[in-house]
Design goal:
The protein has 467 residues and is mostly helical. It has helices at 4-21, 51-63, 68-80, 129-144, 148-151, 153-166, 197-213, 220-242, 246-253, 277-282, 305-313, 319-331, 333-336, 351-358, 379-388, 392-409, 432-446, and strands at 23-26, 29-33, 49-50, 100-106, 109-115, 243-244, 289-290, 293-295, 298-300, 303-304, 345-346, 415-416, 422-423. One of its GO terms (molecular function) is endo-alpha-N-acetylgalactosaminidase activity.
Length: 467
């Protein structure tokens, strides 16, 4: 009789084999992984390597001592980085990294073709690709101890181009980054335009990574100074204005609107009637989270998972806030974890709200895809954040749930339903980042020391500023 340990080893070996089969080769070298290998569906762009999708795969390769593919990926994607001065006539702005790339052949010659969003649904350029690229460069350096790659002149220039793109002067009074709908993992219209949490946390993380990777020589010291100034303001802004718990909710409920002047309480002119009815009962006594978005006259009260988990990993959330976020998961487990970790956002939009906000997007129907679907790829982030917060039992429970279903269901892209019971209506199977998400999560549980690849210690003491 095969023991449970032997069975787990066999299943893990099967997942690893699937991951290796997804590898893309360029000029004889491994360079990335395809998005999915679903033989029953049209390839579309799922046969390409997406920068954000490759991150969990890259972490798995790094944790298994296979750093070559990650190095090749970093080198070749840097060559694809845009060097145009600005977005003009559908050309990507300087510093932008592509959403994805594909290997093309012309006789014996191979070359890479990048998509910066010009082929994407709604033609939205990816804002998060360049941020994930910096974080992956840092993870590569921490794993291998190779300090030479990031210090090469072309890599230093690439990092500075990204910072120029992200730190550009803009029409804004806030330290956060203004982005359109569909510019990151939620790449379809979902009302996440303006200052979405996920981008602000990735922005914060990439700035912190840049301070570790940039050399202080030449104009590097000037860049580090700019980064540190923005970090302090950004950290203060997110912690003070995005945080939601019952105490904060009570304050918002009693807000006066249309206040004028500097020393006011309701700085964003939030109307208390915008608090959704579901929230006051759903928010636990000891739970809290960072709101999905914040701007003039607007708080998006939805819970967005990736931003909150990354806030824990990057120490953008304080220790107390990190515990409150994990308390929310523990006490609303069926809503946020359910039958397949982890729900991308909660709650889903339905009815007239869905029609207006999504533009009647049939793929984003209620409790499906980005509108409240459950995404296995988020398992690695949940596991890492839970371990960093010292909530090992939550990490283990989530991995156990995922293992029971993913192999049987052939690693779908996402799951549907209030609790993630159904395989997504249009989900691809053998989705690479679903496979890598499980493998990375298991590796983090086995060896929590790997958390340093993607996490940051608190230790950032830079003065903040208020509006």
């Amino acid at each position: 009789m095969t023991s449970a340990i032997d069975q787990n080893s066999l299943l893990e070996a099967e997942a690893w084999e699937l991951l290796e089969e997804s590898i893309i080769y360029y000029q004889g070298k491994p360079i990335g992984t395809v998005a999915a290998r679903d033989a029953e569906a049209d390839a579309l762009n799922y046969d390409q390597c997406f920068l954000r999708d490759f991150v969990p795969s890259a972490l798995v390769f790094l944790m298994h001592g296979k750093a070559e593919i990650v190095r090749n990926f970093l080198v070749e994607t840097l060559k694809l980085q845009s060097h145009e001065k600005q977005i003009d006539c559908f050309e990507p702005g300087a510093g932008l990294m592509p959403a994805s790339f594909k290997v093309h052949s012309n006789g014996n010659e191979e070359f890479l073709v990048a998509d910066f969003g010009e082929l994407a649904i709604a033609r939205v350029p990816p804002i998060d690709s360049c941020m994930w690229w910096i974080l992956l460069l840092r993870a590569y350096e921490k794993t291998t101890g190779d300090l030479t790659l990031a210090r090469q002149p072309d890599f230093q220039a690439g990092i500075k181009l990204i910072l120029d793109l992200c730190l550009v002067h803009r029409f804004s009074m806030y330290p956060t980054m203004l982005v359109p709908d569909g510019a990151f993992m939620i790449d379809r219209r979902m009302g996440v335009y303006e200052h979405p949490l996920e981008i602000q946390v990735l922005f914060y993380a990439s700035l912190r990574a840049a301070t570790e990777l940039l050399l202080p020589d030449g104009d590097g010291d000037s860049y580090i100074g700019k980064v540190n100034r923005r970090l302090g303001s950004l950290k203060y802004h997110i912690r003070n204005y995005y945080w939601l718990d019952l105490k904060r909710l009570g304050e918002i409920y009693r807000y006066k609107d249309n206040e004028f002047g500097k020393e006011i309480v309701n700085k964003f002119n939030i109307n208390s009637e915008s608090i959704p009815s579901w929230l006051t009962e759903w928010l636990p006594e000891t739970g809290g989270y960072l709101a999905g978005n914040l701007g003039p006259g607007r708080i998006d009260f939805r819970f967005f998972t990736l931003g909150n988990l990354m806030a824990i990993l990057t120490s953008l959330a304080s220790e107390k806030e990190s515990q409150s976020i994990m308390n929310l998961f523990a006490q609303r487990w069926q809503d946020l974890i359910g039958y397949m970790p982890v729900k991308i956002c909660f709650p889903a939009m339905d009815g007239l709200e869905w029609r207006i906000v999504t533009g009647c997007d049939s793929k984003n129907r209620a409790w499906s895809y980005h509108n409240g679907g459950n995404w296995p790829v988020l398992l690695w982030l949940f596991t890492a954040a839970a371990l960093k917060a010292g909530r090992t039992e939550l990490a283990q429970a989530a991995v156990a749930i995922a293992e029971r279903r993913l192999f049987k269901d052939k690693f779908p892209e996402y799951y549907d339903g209030n609790n993630g019971r159904l395989i997504g209506k249009e989900a691809r199977i053998y989705q690479t980042w679903s496979i890598a998400g499980l493998l990375a999560a298991k590796k983090f549980v086995e060896n929590p020391e790997y958390l340093e690849l993607i996490s940051f210690a608190e230790g950032l003491e830079v003065p903040g500023c208020s509006l």
